[in-house]
Design brief:
Chain lengths: ~100, ~475
C-alpha cells in the first residue's frame, strides 16, 4: 500500500510528458498537409505515438504495475529507433527529401 | 529482468544514434539540427539510465526523476521537425532560385546567340547540374525528317562508347507523341519493343533514359534525351525545369535552323554574284574562289574571329564584283590597255563598293571590295590609303589576290611557282603588302597543305586587276605589253 502510494506521488511527474506528447501529436496531425511531403514525417509520427503510449504506461505504472514499466521501456525503444533512423538517413542536402 | 534488458537496449540504441549524429550526419551548416538531435538522444539515454537505476533500487524518487528528461523529449522532437522543415524549405527556395537563374541564363542565350552549340552546351550542363540526370543530349530533326542528328551531348552521353549520333525519328516520335511536351521514360517496358536504342543504352550501362520533344510553332524540331545510370526518382519540379529548358532549346534550335537557312541563301546569292563576275570576265574564272579561300585561311591563321573569317571569305568571293560595271570591250581586250582604259579598269573597286554598300547582307564586305587595291605604302587606289588605315581584311585580300594572280595559269602565260610568288611578296613587304601579314601569309603558304590547296585551284584562272596595273610589281606584263 505504501509502495502504491509512493508510485502515486512520484508517478504524477509523468503526466507532463503525457500532456506534452499529446500536444506534439496534435501539432503533427494538424500540420500534416504541410509536413507529409517530408519523407521522414512518418518516423516522427511513429516516434511521438510510441512516446505518447510510453507516457501513458508510465502513468499507469503508478498503480504498482511493474510490467507496464517494462512495456514502457519497449515502446521507448520504438521511439529511439525511429529517431535514430531519421538521424542516420536524413542528409538534407537538397530538396530530394521534400 | 525484462525492464533491465530493455533499458540497456535503449541506452545502446541511443549510443548508436549519438554516433550517427556526431560523425555521420549531413552538412556542417546543419549543426543546429544536429545539436537538437543530440539533445533528444541524450534525453532518451538519461531517462533510460534513471529507469535502470530505478529497476535496481526500486526507489520511487527515480520514477519521478525519470519524468524530467521525458518531459522535454516531445518538445525536442517537435523542434527537430520544425528545424528540418525549415532547412528543407530553405533548400527548396535555394533550388528554385537556382533553377530560375539557370532558366534566365538559358533564355538569354537562346534568344541572343545563334550558335546552337553554345546554347545547348549551357542548357545541357545546367540540366546535369540541377537535376539527377548524369547524361544529356540534344538531337535536331534532320531535313528529311527521317532521323534525329546529335547536336551536342554532355555527361555520360559524351563518354558513351556506343554510337548514338543518330536516332530514328519515326519510332521515337511514336513514343513521344503519346505524351504532349512532357518528359517520358522511353526505355520502360511499354516502349522497349518499339525503340531499339534502349538496348544500346543498356549495353553502355545506362539504366534510365527520358526524352522530351522540342516543339516550336507546332512543329517538332528536335528531342532532348536525358539518362542516368542508377535508379531515378524524378520530382515534379525537376520535370518542370527540364520542360522549361526544352522550350528554350526548341526556340534556339528553330533560330539556328532559320539562321542556317538565311546563311545558305546568302552564300548562294554570293556565289551567284561571283559566277556573274566570272561570266562577265572569263579571265577571272576561279580566281574569286581562290582569293576567298586564301583570305579565309590567312584570317584563320591569324586567329581572327569566326565572323571575320566569314567576312574574309565572302569578301574574297566578291572583291572584283565592280568589274560588272566595266565595259566588256575593255575587260576582255586581248592586247595591252591604254591609260584611259586602265583608268576605267581601276574604277572597279569603287563600283564594287557602290554595288555592295546598299545591300545589308553585303555592307560588311564593302571595305574589302573598295580597298583591295590599296598599297601599304599609300600608292594604291582608289583613295591612296597607307599602312593600317587600310582595313585588315582588305590587306588580307590584297595578299590573296596578288598571290593567286601570280601563281595561276593564264591563257597567255603560265602561272609562276608558289616559291617565286612568295619571294616577290617577300620583296614587296612594306611597299605593296603589310609586312606582318605578308610574313604570316608566307609561313601559311609554305605549309604543305596550303601548297596543295594552291595546286587544286581551277584551271581557268584568268588575269585580274594586277594584270592591268602598271604599279603592281607582281604581275604587270599585260599592262606593260
Amino acid at each position: 500500500m505504501q509502495m502504491a502510494l509512493g508510485y502515486n506521488i512520484y508517478g504524477y511527474g509523468h503526466i507532463f510528458p503525457l500532456i506534452l506528447s499529446l500536444a506534439a501529436l496534435i501539432f503533427l496531425f494538424s500540420n500534416r498537409t504541410d509536413l507529409k511531403s517530408y519523407r521522414f514525417y512518418i518516423y516522427y509520427l511513429v516516434c511521438l505515438s510510441a512516446f505518447f503510449l510510453t507516457s501513458i504506461l508510465y502513468v499507469l505504472s503508478m498503480f504498482n504495475m511493474p510490467l507496464l514499466h517494462s512495456l514502457a521501456g519497449l515502446l521507448e525503444f520504438v521511439s529511439i529507433t525511429a529517431i535514430v533512423l531519421v538521424v542516420r538517413n536524413d542528409r538534407l542536402k537538397d530538396d530530394s527529401n521534400a | 529482468m525484462l525492464d533491465v534488458a530493455m533499458r540497456i537496449l535503449n541506452i545502446c540504441a541511443c549510443a548508436v544514434g549519438i554516433y550517427f549524429a556526431l560523425f555521420r550526419h549531413g552538412n556542417p551548416d546543419q549543426n543546429r539540427l544536429r545539436y537538437v538531435f543530440l539533445l533528444t538522444l541524450f534525453s532518451f539515454a538519461a531517462a533510460n539510465v534513471i529507469a535502470l537505476v530505478y529497476a535496481f533500487t526500486n526507489l520511487p524518487v527515480f520514477h519521478l526523476l525519470l519524468s524530467y528528461p521525458s518531459t522535454i523529449i516531445p518538445m525536442l522532437l517537435i523542434a527537430n521537425l520544425l528545424l528540418t522543415m525549415q532547412i528543407i524549405e530553405k533548400n527548396r527556395l535555394k533550388n528554385r532560385e537556382r533553377k530560375l537563374i539557370a532558366l534566365q541564363h538559358i533564355g538569354t542565350k537562346a534568344t541572343n546567340a545563334l550558335d546552337l552549340q553554345q546554347v545547348s552546351k549551357l542548357a545541357l550542363n545546367e540540366i546535369l547540374e540541377i537535376s539527377q540526370f548524369d547524361g544529356a543530349a540534344l538531337y535536331a530533326l534532320a531535313k528529311n525528317k527521317d532521323y534525329l542528328e546529335l547536336v551536342r551531348s554532355e555527361g555520360v552521353f559524351r563518354q558513351a562508347v556506343i554510337d548514338l549520333s543518330v536516332l530514328p525519328a519515326k519510332e521515337l516520335f511514336f513514343v513521344l507523341d503519346s505524351v504532349e511536351n512532357r518528359l517520358i521514360d522511353i526505355c520502360n517496358p511499354e516502349y522497349r519493343g518499339v525503340l531499339q536504342i534502349c538496348d544500346k543504352m543498356e549495353a553502355a550501362g545506362i539504366k534510365n533514359a527520358f526524352a522530351t520533344q522540342l516543339v516550336n510553332q507546332q512543329e517538332t524540331v528536335g528531342v532532348v534525351v536525358l539518362t542516368r545510370r542508377d535508379r531515378i526518382d524524378l520530382q515534379l519540379d525537376e520535370q518542370q525545369f527540364i520542360t522549361n529548358v526544352a522550350t528554350w532549346l526548341s526556340v534556339a534550335t528553330s533560330n539556328a535552323k532559320l539562321y542556317e537557312g538565311l546563311q545558305t541563301g546568302y552564300l548562294k546569292v554570293t556565289l551567284a554574284l561571283s559566277k556573274a563576275i566570272e561570266a562577265k570576265d572569263p579571265y577571272t574564272c576561279g580566281h574569286s574562289d581562290s582569293v576567298a579561300k586564301f583570305s579565309a585561311n590567312l584570317a584563320s591563321h591569324l586567329e581572327l574571329s569566326k565572323s571575320d573569317i566569314e567576312r574574309a571569305y565572302i569578301g574574297g568571293l566578291l572583291h572584283d564584283i565592280g568589274k560588272i560595271g566595266i565595259p566588256d570591250a575593255i575587260l576582255n581586250k586581248p592586247g595591252s590597255l591604254t591609260d584611259e582604259e586602265y583608268a576605267i579598269i581601276k574604277e572597279h573597286s569603287y563600283k564594287g563598293f557602290e554595288i555592295t554598300q546598299p545591300v545589308d547582307a553585303l555592307i560588311n564586305i564593302s571595305d574589302i571590295v573598295i580597298y583591295h587595291h590599296e598599297r601599304f605604302d599609300g600608292t594604291g587606289y582608289p583613295l591612296g590609303l597607307s599602312g593600317e588605315k587600310i582595313p585588315l581584311l582588305a590587306r588580307i585580300a590584297t595578299l590573296a589576290d596578288a598571290f593567286d594572280a601570280m601563281t595561276s595559269d593564264r591563257p597567255y602565260r603560265k602561272g609562276m611557282p608558289a616559291e617565286k610568288a612568295l619571294a616577290i611578296i617577300e620583296q614587296n613587304k612594306g611597299a605593296q603588302f603589310d609586312p606582318i601579314l605578308a610574313t604570316h601569309f608566307i609561313t601559311m603558304v609554305e605549309d604543305k597543305q596550303q601548297r596543295e590547296y594552291a595546286v587544286d585551284l581551277t584551271d581557268d584562272e584568268l588575269a585580274v586587276l594586277f594584270d592591268e596595273n602598271d604599279e603592281n610589281p607582281v604581275d604587270n606584263e599585260r599592262a606593260a605589253g
